[in-house]
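Batch manifest line 385
LIGAND: flavin mononucleotide
JOB: complex structure
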Amino acid sequence: MSTDIDPGLFRETLGHYPTGVAVVTAIIDGRPVGMVVGTFSSVSMDPPLIAFYPMSGSRSFAQLRNATSFCVNVLASDQEALCRQFATAGERKFEGVAWRPAALGAPILDGAVSWIECTFEDVREAGDHFIVLGRVQDLAVERSTLPLLFFQGGYGRFTPGSFVATPDPELIQAAQVAEALRSRVERLSEDLSVNVSVLAKIRWDAVQVLAANQSPVEEPFPLGHRQPLIPPFGAIFMANSSKDDTDQWLRRGADKSEERRELNRGQLDSVREHGYSLLAAGVEVARRHQAALSEFELSDRLPRRERDVQQATSELANFFFTDLVAGERYDLANVVVLVPTESGLPSMALRMTGLPREATVDQIESWIHTLQVIASTAASPAGAC
Ligand SMILES: Cc1cc2nc3c(=O)[nH]c(=O)nc-3n(C[C@H](O)[C@H](O)[C@H](O)COP(=O)(O)O)c2cc1C
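JOB STATUS: finished
ARTIFACT:
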């Protein structure tokens, strides 16, 4: 009996099955409409049939079902923002979205992996959903690239299960830039007895590509560690980012409230203005954050563990700052400055951790200055020693 099944258990169990993500589009009264579905699947080759399952309460489907045809657009792994836009109810789904009509008129979205235009073969009620059977009329692979995947409530992409490391050109470029800074980074680490690392933005992670750890305070993360860029963390990498990237970063936080977004945006503006950021998180908050990050890595980066990282990262929000008050002393967890890189290279940063406690403003300003001098040599590697 269906009443015996706990809805939480149902969601949890079925959430362990991954799906692709598609946007079903149509034209109604001359206007485009669309909705995100994870339930798209192939049904039959002869005749050619596909299916998807809209919720009975979906307002978009109530409109869509009156169309002559609909088009299933399979989203690419770089279209998460588009997916979020189409998954949000309202009139703004097509805002800023480029598309062209398929033969029967349904919208083909720019950048989709593939599209399948169909007529309605059958619409059946199935509990709180419909089962829609579509008869394929036309289809094509538009862009043979990795699709967007959805799993445990998080987005991701496919990685081949091979022992051969996948080449990551951005990571290699970043390692080369870091290598040019190596001797200065090592000297600074030794001179000040602090930990100094070079970080690079690789997709939505900050990856540690170089580390010199001469502080008596142990650096918790090894070389190669990846930390997801979730606000307020990673503002430094957003310093020269486009509006789209910045908006995407702001949306990655756990707290989606306007108030929190404004706080993160304000911190980003101030990091942009100063070119550095400071973190003064207490030991407990920092430990919770480190523990969540370690669990995330140990779990093969499961989306549910990523949510714990989101939560722990958002707790840091009140501890990021740029303005130093004369006469104050600070217990800083880190100082981060932007490494200027040529266009086409990943965004990079230089970070100092394992710092002495109760630092004076003069001391901190001199750390920032020293880091910025070293960072500036990255733009002209020939000048680095
Ligand atoms: C990854 C993902 C998969 C989804 N899959 C479905 C689905 O299969 N069926 C469905 O009705 N809604 C699904 N949704 C939700 C709808 O896209 C979205 O909430 C809805 O279109 C907005 O409400 P509206 O249809 O009333 O405009 C999914 C959302 C996401 C983010």
